[in-house]
Amino acid sequence: MTAKNTICVWYDTQAEDAARFYASVFPDSAVNALHRAPGDYPSGKAGDVLTVEFTVCGIPCIGLNGGPVFPQTEAFSFQIATDSQEETDRYWDAIVGNGGAESACGWCKDRWGVNWQITPRVLTEAMAQGGAVAQRAFAAMMTMRKIDHAAIEAAAAG
């Protein structure tokens, strides 16, 4: 059954490459289908891959090869919850190490320009507590690029 809601991510021409990369990195992820253009279009030719159906951590997505008109911005990101420093490191290193770039506070960008938040549950749980715990965790996070679980735990504990 097709999902009622699907995230559509605009790529220049490399939706298939991006989807295959995501499927290789994240659990419960796959490339499900490729659809080729039935005719020429502004940024491609008949027979080019136009859309890619894929899943990232169980969430259905479509990659659209729409050309360079609409580049990615931080206004959209995938947020991936992690349970350990090892898991955080694995996802962060895969994205950044495959032509991506680090940003601040757990954010990074893949080589296709798509933004990712690699967010440890220890951080979201500390933030959900509110008050002084959240303030300390937030202050610690603001100094980081990749989130350090132990430093967040220490800050939350005071």
Quick structural gist:
The protein is 34% helix and 28% strand. The chain is α/β, with parallel strands linked by helices. The radius of gyration is 18 Å and the shape is elongated.
Secondary-structure blueprint:
Blueprint: E1 7-11, H1 15-25, E2 30-36, E3 49-56, E4 59-65, E5 77-82, H2 85-97, E6 101-102, E7 107-109, E8 115-120, H3 121-129, H4 131-141, H5 149-157
Parallel strand pairs: 1-4, 5-8
Antiparallel strand pairs: 2-3, 3-4, 6-7, 7-8
Please name the defining characteristics of this protein.
elongated, 158 residues, 5 helices, 2,3-Dihydroxybiphenyl 1,2-Dioxygenase, domain 1, 2 domains, alpha/beta, four-stranded mixed beta sheet
Task: Report what the structure shows.
The protein is an alpha/beta fold and 158 residues long. The chain folds into 2 domains: 1-70, 2,3-Dihydroxybiphenyl 1,2-Dioxygenase, domain 1 (Roll), CATH 3.10.180.10; 72-158, 2,3-Dihydroxybiphenyl 1,2-Dioxygenase, domain 1 (Roll). Helices cover 34% and strands 28% of the residues. The strands form 2 sheets. A 4-stranded mixed β-sheet has the order 1-4-3-2. It has a 4-stranded mixed β-sheet with strand order 5-8-7-6. The mean pLDDT is 97.
- In spatial order, strands of the major sheet run 1-4-3-2
Order of helices and strands: EHEEEEHEEEHHH
First-to-last CA distance: 48 Å
Low-confidence stretches: none
Helicity, in percent?
A: 25-40%
Can you tell me the CATH topology of the largest domain? 2,3-Dihydroxybiphenyl 1,2-Dioxygenase, domain 1
Could you tell me the number of beta strands? Answer: 8
The CATH first-level class of the largest domain comes to Alpha Beta
Q: Give the overall silhouette.
A: elongated
Rg, alpha carbons: 18 Å
Give the biggest beta sheet: 4 strands, mixed
| Helix count from the secondary structure assignment | 5
